[in-house]
Amino acid sequence: MTSLGLRTYRSIVREVNRAAIVPRATRNPIVLSTFHKLFKLNKEDSGFEQDMQNAVVFMRSQRMHKTLVDRYNPLHDLTAEERIKATARRVGLDMPIESKGE
Questions:
Q1: DSSP-assigned letters across all residues of the chain
Q2: What is the pTM of this model?
Q3: By mean pLDDT, which of 3-7, 29-33, 66-70, 93-97 is the weakest?
Q4: Higher pLDDT, residue 20 or 98
Q5: What pLDDT does residue 63 have?
Q6: What is the dihedral of CA 67, 69, 73, 79, to 10 degrees?
Q7: How far is CA 67 from the centre of its chain?
């Protein structure tokens, strides 16, 4: 593997680890072993290295997008009812309490 290929492989492993939502001990090792095999099979293919660099940029951009959405739109993962209540609280109002009909 060339130094550029090794650097790209390490970047992919780093991004896969950062994107994981489960602890390292419980992750599926097949994902990283598949990337390792792909890099071994395509050692000298410059088109493959470019594709993998694009994949790294994509994964990094996806992670950054999720971070920004979480930061600047905290209501995005709420249900419709929770979103309405949170919006009303934001402007200083409370939602009326609905009476329980008999």
A1: --HHHHHHHHHHHHHHHHH--S-GGGS-THHHHHHHHHHHHTSS-HHHHHHHHHHHHHHHHHHHHHHHHHHH-TTTTS-HHHHHHHHHHHTT--PPPPP---
A2: 0.70
A3: 93-97
A4: 20
A5: 93
A6: -100
A7: 8
